[in-house]
Amino acid sequence: MRFQHGNYNVDYAMSGIKLNHVSEISPQLLGANTLQFLSNLGGPTVIHIPGKDKSRCRVIVTLLHGNEPSGLKAIHSLLCDNFVPQVNTKIIIASVVASLTEPVFTHRMLPGKRDLNRCFNHDEKDLQHMLANAICEEIKACQPEGIVDIHNTSGSGPSFSVSIDSSRQHQAIASYFTHRFIFTDIRLGSIMEKDFGCPIVTIEAGGSQDTEADVTAINGIRAYLSADMLFAQAQELALITHPRRLELCKESSLHYGDHLNPAVDITLRQDIEGFNFGNVVQNTPLGWIKDNDLHHFHLDEPTQRVDDFFSIVDGMLVTKKHLVLFMITTRVDIAKSDCLLYFAEKP
Ligand SMILES: [Zn+2]
Predict the structure, then answer these.
(1) pLDDT digits (tens, 9 = 90+) for 43-61
(2) Average pLDDT value for residue range 65-71
(3) pTM of the predicted structure, to 2 decimals
(4) Which of 153, 222, 235, 297 has the fewest CB atoms within 10 Å, i.e. is most exposed?
(5) CA 62 to ligand 1 center in whole angstroms
(6) What angle do CA 333, 300, 249 make, to 5 degrees?
């Protein structure tokens, strides 16, 4: 099948998905800016960069979500600089088509399609699962010593890392990028849940609109690819263990604003992103609930209760405990399809 999207196209074989492979980096491929570069890639792509030490390999995955460009911008910039990594490097740029769909860099996934970073847990026959499988095969084939998957948060906020394992090696990889390390027991079908025989860490470089996130991504990638001893920790980490997701019920309506919007069930504060990794003490107001009822919310873990952590006071949703909040979004579509925020009790 051939899908046309403007001035680029991608071949999808019926039996699976073909990744483009690039090993010659030409000025024509790089283009004048990140968008031209992405457009020239034309579809999901693996870039092979030879390292000083050719006996080892590291992997970078980025753009699993089309609206999270910091990793891509960093890769483009390093390729323009003729950067030479310490070891052989494979860079996998995934959701090229979603990213190029107008308006560019706004679609997490193609409209109406599945979230690619929720398709790494089982075999289904849709294109997203086939692409996820093709990415996994590509990674396994090179037996890397480490993998990072670089994202942005949709809301503004500082960088952090996430892993399903808190080993010294996982923490060392994270430490090239950020000092915040989240050890999670949540399983969503994301790439970091796969066993590749080496540590894999998700990096959230910061908000997709934040210049600081671009700096975090490029400095982190440079450090990660320059280190000879990958598992030598670059900085001390602050550990957050087993956060939960605050999710919205399907039928509940949501809005972000500065005051109660009586047309919807829940109005969250327009400035709620400001709480990302901030000091959220007990009784911090997060928004307004029209019918004074917490039934609009649930947690990802059914054995835990929303009202252990949040309550309603004078029509406002407030925190019941001292919490750390992160991954807060103010995009209604992402809040509804993914979650409102993650939280953990303040250690
Ligand atoms: Zn993402």
Answers:
(1) 999 999 999 999 999 999 9
(2) 97
(3) 0.90
(4) 235
(5) 9
(6) 45
Helix (H, G, I), strand (E, B) or coil at 21: strand
Distance 26 CA to ligand 1 centre (A): 29
Distance from the CA of 202 to the center of ligand 1, in angstroms? 9
- Residue appearing with tokens 């079908």: 189
Chain-centre distance of CA 338, in angstroms?
12
Q: Which of helix, strand or coil describes residue 72? A: helix
Q: Give the Å distance between the CA of 67 and the centre of ligand 1.
A: 8
Domains of the chain: 2-241 (3.40.630.10), 244-345 (no CATH)
- Condensed to tens digits (0 to 9), the pLDDT of residues 139-175 reads 999 999 999 999 999 888 999 999 999 999 999 999 9
User: How far does residue 68's CA lie from ligand 1's centre (Å)?
Assistant: 6
- Averaged over 79-101, what is the pLDDT? 97
Containing 260, the helix (H) or strand (E) segment is none
Lookup result for tokens 């979500």: 65
Residue type, 217: A
Q: How far is the CA of 302 from the centre of ligand 1 (A)?
A: 24
Ligand 1 midpoint to CA 313 (Å): 33
